[in-house]
Design brief:
Layout lengths: L6 H10 L4 E5 L2 E4 H17 L6 E5 L4 H12 L3 E5 L5 H11 L3 E4 L4 H5 L6 E4 H4 L6 H10 L5 E7 L7 E6 H15 L6 E4 L9 H10 L2 E4 L8 H10 L4 E5 H8 L14 E5 L5 H10 L4 E6 L9 E4 L14 E2 L3 E6 L12 E7 L10 H7 E3 L9 E11 L5 E6 L3 E4 L2 E4 H9 L4 E9 L4 E8 L3 H11 L8 E4 L13 H11 L1
Helix pairs in contact: 1-2, 1-9, 2-3, 8-9
């Protein structure tokens, strides 16, 4: 029988590995049996309160119980919306205004905080509702009504207007994603994941869902360890973590501080990375340290239920080269479209557009933005068919591999030339004493600014760039930082750097 509901992952696994640790973190661990029991209790409670087909906020710290709460919301026929106490207050307020949720589930540390917000719906404490007697009849009735296009979560991404956009994911898209991701990545019951990302982004699906599917284990790594690279690697070894799905900046944080001279990951055999371009020099450090490990470059926006393309690093790359994002997962197609909505000639750039089952349902309560991004396939005028326009530019190389070039809004016109800011960043990161670099453009002053972290003087780096780049690509200002500002999920905070540039010149 074809799978229609992600809860089937948990239900099949709990019979095989009831007492195995599913999720572990600073605040304890949960076995698969405990996740199953607590989730069904939470689902039963929400059913008893009359909630169904509504958003339920899960406002809890990053801990195993948070994941059980997610599953509990799905058992009730509702869809969960993860929030976190580390999120900025203004952002939480905007999200709650958009949602107007039926209820919010909190833990003992977030309950009082939640009381300070409007639009939370009814507030419930997880530890209390997780002891609710399971109502088999109510849960069965919900399951009978659920279909695979029902929403299961909303995660909020940044909006260009400053208002977050809530991306709605459904059973069908997540199942398609996880089945193909697991096949490509070769996950199994022996996989031990080290989770790096917050639980209020979709990135956590790469670890949580395979854990539920196979009976693997995920360790929720304490955030504070990402300030101490040696301690971080020691944590990986202590917990025998063999699989990472991290943002690039978290991996380069380890390699750029010469951590491997002191301690090496003893169990890692699979390293997947996403979100940003991996500087080849840093990647080569990782590959030299772990010559038998698999390294996989992943690409995909939240609107396509996470990752939609992958490239397994299968050859040597020079520091001047860029990694491909490779090929789409099975059951997904990438279409490149030029400015005239036509497929560009081989080797020329176009906007990366995605079609397939894994497209999400759109933006919650935002039909205008949904209509702008999820559009009729311009190559098909015969029947309705949606594609998602990513806003990313790409092209195919001579091997037929898809290459990410830049965001459309990261491509500038300067001194009569079209410039990819990412190209300047790649060249900068090739300097042996530069750990990471980021370029932004001030559209008012028409100036390029570059920020970097590393042990090299600004003047020396400028001299290096002049040897590598044409004159029109040389940044007007180069500023060394002690550390690069990051967004909550570990990406470079380009908006903050751009704002700093426009304010300070």
């Amino acid at each position: 029988m074809m799978q229609r509901n992600i809860l089937e992952y948990l239900e099949h696994t709990v019979t095989r590995f009831p007492d195995k640790c599913a999720f572990s973190g600073e605040n304890g661990e949960l076995t698969f049996s405990e996740v199953y029991t607590q989730a069904r209790s939470v689902g039963s409670f929400l059913c008893s309160e009359g909630f169904e087909h509504q958003p339920v906020v899960v406002f809890m710290k990053k801990q195993p119980k948070t994941i059980a709460a997610f599953m509990g919301v799905i058992y009730s026929g509702c869809f969960y919306v993860p929030l976190d106490d580390e999120m900025p207050q203004h952002r939480v307020e905007l999200i709650l205004q958009t949602l107007n949720p039926a209820a919010s589930i909190c833990d003992e540390t977030t309950l009082e905080m939640a009381k300070g917000y409007a639009n939370t719906g009814k507030l419930y404490c997880y530890d209390e509702i997780a002891e609710t007697p399971v109502n088999e009849e109510a849960l069965a009735a919900v399951r009978e009504r659920q279909i695979d296009t029902d929403p299961i979560y909303i995660v909020f991404t940044s909006g260009s207007t400053g208002v977050p956009k809530g991306v709605v994911g459904c059973h069908r898209a997540v199942i398609d994603y996880i089945e193909n991701l697991c096949d490509v990545m070769k996950f199994n019951s022996d996989s031990v994941f080290g989770n790096q990302t917050p639980l209020y982004f979709d990135a956590y699906l790469k670890e949580i869902m395979p854990t539920l599917k196979y009976g693997a284990t995920t360790h929720l790594i304490p955030k504070k360890l990402f300030m101490f690279p040696v301690a971080l690697v020691e944590y990986l070894n202590t917990h025998k973590i063999n699989t990472l799905c991290w943002v690039v900046s978290a991996l380069t944080f380890i390699s750029s501080f010469k951590t491997f001279e002191k301690v090496k990951p003893e169990y890692l055999h699979t390293i997947a990375f996403a979100s940003e371009v991996f500087p080849i020099r840093q990647l080569n450090i990782w590959r030299a340290t772990l010559p038998n490990a698999r390294f996989v470059n992943l690409y995909g926006p939240t609107e396509t239920t996470g990752i939609c393309c992958y490239f397994e690093v299968d050859r040597e790359f020079g520091e001047e080269e860029a990694l491909p994002i490779g090929r789409p997962f099975p059951n997904t197609e990438v279409i490149l479209l030029d400015e005239n909505n036509c497929v560009p000639p081989q080797g020329e750039q176009g906007e990366i557009c995605i079609r397939g089952t894994r497209l999400t349902l759109g933006y919650y309560c935002n039909p205008e933005k949904t209509g702008e991004a999820f559009v009729q396939n311009p190559l098909n005028n015969r029947y309705p068919e949606l594609i998602y326009r990513t806003g990313d530019l790409g092209k195919y190389n001579e091997r037929g591999e898809l290459m990410f070039l830049s965001r459309k809004d990261n491509q500038i016109k300067h001194m009569g030339h079209r410039i990819e800011l990412g190209e300047i960043e790649v060249v900068s990161a090739n300097h042996e004493n530069v750990n990471t670099a980021c370029c932004v453009f001030d559209p008012e002053k028409k100036k390029i600014a570059m920020y970097y972290v590393g042990d090299v003087a600004e003047g020396e780096l400028l001299k290096f760039l002049k040897q590598k780049l044409p004159r029109y690509m040389i940044p007007h200002t180069i500023r060394r930082l002690e550390e690069m500002p990051l967004t909550p999920n570990g990406k470079i905070d380009r908006n903050l750097l751009k704002k700093r540039t426009m304010e300070n010149g």
